[in-house]
Write a structure and sequence with these properties.
The protein has helices at 42-49, 53-65, 81-92, 98-114, 117-131, 138-143, 145-154, 184-191, 193-196, 220-226, 234-242, 253-257, 275-283, 304-314, 354-372; strands spanning 68-72, 157-163, 172-177, 206-210, 229-231, 246-250, 265-268, 286-293, 337-342, 382-385. By secondary structure, the chain is an alpha/beta fold. An 8-stranded mixed beta sheet has the order 1-2-9-8-3-6-4-5, with helices on both faces. Strands 7-10 form a two-stranded parallel ribbon.
Length: 386
């Protein structure tokens, strides 16, 4: 785990053999509920990590042999009721019919109070929110970081593997795999970027991206802008890179969601995705692959007919694939162990074609999976790239 640098307020990140004094990327003791600095018994160590000392030591050796380091984002196994409530209200509820119902209630209430003037005012406000200039404030975004750390605490554990040494100054395209049933892991990584990239890629702002359809919906559009997201269309991606800022792309998109998920394998829709490669070559920027192990397991698999229907719908209207199911078939994710691996950047070589660079990128993603699958939550999990 992390053994150098400092926490958010400059406090030293002390490492010890038994994990009692190790700090997470968020600056909290890994030992969690156990007394900070006190040696952990074997039982306590197992309760914290879910693994023995020997297993953790072996994982560290594997990671360090690759020139990488591994850290917890927040203390493992530290879920509180407030974390569960926060995830449901702030991250799950907006993807149900609740916002639509709330909009109808507001418009109807305005009609009761003001007659037809009420709905007219509501329409004008929503129209303005749809067309007003994009507003982004990094300080506002930073205030929401704790909400996303609650998403991490909700899970059994969240670990990150990152490059140990600084990489060349960007900007970079950070490419996520897999998409997952919804963008839980990608949201978590995007909004905690100041914690995990500060020691190897500190310069430049870090923007996420989402389907363009989200940015024509009032209120949703404004919230996403404030959280540092841009549309995934080429113009927005290129504009962000030319401003010397990093941007993320979840490569598989809706098409990958429609491939379905399985408890035995991840299926990536990647062989025909070459647009991000061309952008990287045109703008002369690097691509950093990120693999989200266990992302596909935090919601239940959907039947083929359901996914086929929504794939057909998305040919005409970009709605994504609603109706994710977790606990009790509600849009509440299953609590799992997550492992995020941030690979080393790839750059186009002189004279290289788009196809050649793409083939090299696909090989790098496969190697990333094969290297770190042994320390992932399910080492028997397989990778299929289509």
């Amino acid at each position: 785990m992390r053994n150098r640098g400092a926490g958010p307020d400059g406090e030293p990140l002390v490492s010890s053999n038994d994990g009692a004094e190790e700090m997470t990327l968020s600056g909290e003791p890994v030992a969690g509920r156990y007394k900070k600095g006190a040696p952990l018994s074997d039982a306590e160590f197992l309760a914290v990590h879910g693994k023995t000392r020997a297993q953790i030591a072996e994982e560290r050796r594997l990671v360090e042999a690759q020139g990488m380091e591994i850290n917890y984002l927040v203390p493992p196994r530290s879920t509180k009721l407030s974390d569960v409530v926060a995830v449901f209200i702030a991250h799950m509820l907006p993807f149900t019919l609740a916002p639509f119902i709330l909009t109808i209630v507001v418009v109807y209430t305005s009609y009761i109070l003001l007659g037809w003037l009420g709905p007219l005012i509501s329409f004008l406000v929503l129209f303005y929110l749809t067309v007003c200039p994009r507003h982004y404030d990094p300080n506002t975004r930073r205030k929401y970081q704790e909400l996303y750390l609650k998403m991490a605490r909700y899970m059994v554990s969240v670990r990150m593997v990152t490059p140990k040494d600084p990489i060349p100054d960007g900007p970079y395209i950070f490419a996520f795999h897999p998409h997952g049933r919804m963008f839980y892991s990608t949201s978590l990584i995007i909004q905690s970027h100041e914690l995990w990239r500060k020691h190897f890629c500190p310069k430049g702002e870090f923007f996420g991206s989402a389907a363009g359809s989200f940015f024509v919906v009032p209120i949703v559009r404004n919230i996403l802008n404030n959280l540092g997201l841009v549309s995934v269309d080429k113009h927005a991606i290129v504009s962000t890179l030319r401003n010397k800022d990093h941007v993320t792309i979840t490569i598989g998109g809706v098409k990958e969601i429609c491939l379905g998920t399985s408890p035995k394998y991840d299926k990536l829709y990647l062989m025909r995705r070459k647009g991000f490669i061309k952008v990287a070559m045109d703008e002369k920027v690097g691509i950093v692959p990120i693999y989200n192990f266990n992302e596909n397991q935090i919601f239940k698999p959907e039947p083929h007919w359901f996914l086929a229907f929504w794939e057909w719908v998305n040919n005409y209207v970009g709605l994504g694939v609603p109706g994710m199911r977790g606990y009790l078939h509600l849009p509440m994710p299953l609590r799992k162990e997550l492992l995020f691996v941030v690979g080393k950047p790839l750059f186009a070589r002189e004279g290289e074609t788009v196809d050649d660079f793409h083939a090299r990128y696909v090989a790098a993603v496969k190697q990333l999976f094969d290297t770190y699958a042994p320390i992932s939550p399910d080492p028997s999990h397989k990778l299929i790239i289509t």
